[in-house]
Please model this.
Amino acid sequence: MAQTSLSATSRIIRWIDYRLPFVAMLQHELYEYPTPRNLSYWWNFGSLSGIMLVVMIVTGIFLAMQYTPHASLAFDSVERIMRDVDYGWMLRYAHMNGASMFFALLYIHMFRGLYYGSYKQPRELLWILGVIILILAIMTAFMGYVLPWGQMSYWAATVITNLFSAIPLIGQSIVTFLWGGFTVGNPTLNRFYALHYLLPFVILAVVLLHLIALHRFGSNNPLGIEMKGPQDTLPFHPYFTIKDLFGLAVFLLIYSFFVFYAPNFLGSSDNYIPANPMQTPNHIVPEWYLLPYYAILRSVPNKLLGVIMAFGSIFLLFLVPWLDSSPVRSARFRPVYKWVFWLLVIDVIALGWVGANPPEGLVVMVGQIATLYYFVHFLILFPVIGRLERPKPLPASIATAVLQGSGARLGGAGAPLAKS
Amino acid sequence: MLKPFLAALALLVLALSPHAACAQETPPLPHQQWSFDGIFGTYDRAAEQRGFQVYKEVCSTCHPVKHLYFRDLTDIGYTEDEVKAIASTYQVTDEQPNDEGQMFQRPARPSDPIPGPFPNDQAARAANNGALPPDLSMIVKAREGGPDYVFGILTGYKDPPPGFNLLSGMYYNEYFPGHQIAMPPPLSDNAVTYADGTSATVPQMAHDVVTFLTWAAEPNLEPRHRTGFKVMLFLIIMAGIFYAAKRKIWATAH
Model:
């Protein structure tokens, strides 16, 4: 019985697959897909970001069913979700903290790429698609933050859209065009809502391209050398599905802690005050994940130049594959870059601290030094270090390195898991 | 690579949290013991009900609780009949006109929002020397420091230090940004008489009303804590199972 039904199913699948090779594609890309056997847990953050994107879209759709995008109703409708919708508080806190989690995952994923040189030939487009995802995520998060129509929503929208007024001659017209009026108001809220619903699906499409580019050459790995044959790889399933699932459980623990026990820790209390165009909050501060850009913006005394540098700090990332002149990918074999990498991490944290504090005294100075360093790091240190540094010798293959590293016998490389 | 990265992440969370930013000159808020603190925290029902009494008899003269409905009061331990009785002591204008097309007053029902003291913000300002008493249903979430801050404001009235230029009609408050607050000291000993015999000192009343207002701002804290505990427990077990499976699957691959 079971056998006939199984073969019936497989016959249907075969019929479909012959015409639309979808199952075959999944089989190839998710099951057999050869993956470097030495991937560390730093390679979990890509799939985690993808899962988090889905969580955001699902919670977002359910929130949208209850939310009212109108300047005089938005704030109260969010409170109704929190108070009167069944599990509305959970949806809302999951979505709110989910944005923070998504950015934390993206940033770790990107720093991993920078440490292990994952952007280098032939993965330049993979990296560029990732930067496009970051830019789209920033736009989506910014517009989402405006929707509850609290004080910080309103004033963040005002400050950020006003950046475009720095453009000479047409700046003010652009700002009026973005607002749909002469101040941030109901038309602004409505268009932000429409775009906030649209952009995540654009992100999803770019994620698909990101995956296609990834599967062209497969993942980079901690050694930064290419896979040379089956002895260097393991099939994606079950080895990396289970590794990703374990990582997912650990990540969900951290995420749940915020959702259930510190839901407002990462947010600003000012956003629980309804938007008031007549009263500016004491400190207008963006969410933590945008603080470094905000710090760069404020560190430059000239408004137009500040805007150019804040945007430039992201657009600069597009050039990273060509700015880094070293042929060696992994920082493990780059004795100088290995240390310089951490300077960038510290620099970005310093910029975040600067962005969170009012620009007075020490904060201004640290901000200017950190801003300068950020650009020096990519524009000067990246090309120069690659030329001057003498990389350590690379191992012959992933398999030899793994063999030496663990001293274990290389059992059935690339073979599916033997049932015992 | 792991250790410095985790340290960096922890620093990031600490340094970048907007809570790290602090106003100058204001003494640090003393932390109170709250029944709703911690992962098992719940609201103390007796304190909530005493707090509601303080709100009703003192705060509600000037401050609305815009997001609260009478029906919500079952959450703080009142029965449905008690809520009906409480609601019926208020007069509200019905949302719909009567058959003659006239708006009319009627006793409030549990499904009505708790009416505020003023019909609009302008009326509130006119009655309060130009200052607008803020909505209290969100106040605990809408202020940096939350319950400790609101407690600090209620108990932080002092004589201004010598040389402090206090504007007329303003009061000196240790924890208010800029120290000039338009609200007169709202609490004085025995401002209310508690039915349960608790002695109505200023810190006691402040503690009770802050418990009530924290519930008003975050009415789902108790189900959130309960659900969270189950979710965390589930995830810990799930992580353990996945880790064991991972070890077994990878046993032959290293």
Notes: Chain B touches chain A through 51 residues (CB under 8 Å). The radius of gyration of chain B is 24 Å. Confidence is low (pLDDT under 50) at residues 11-24 of chain B. The longest helix of chain B spans residues 221-250.
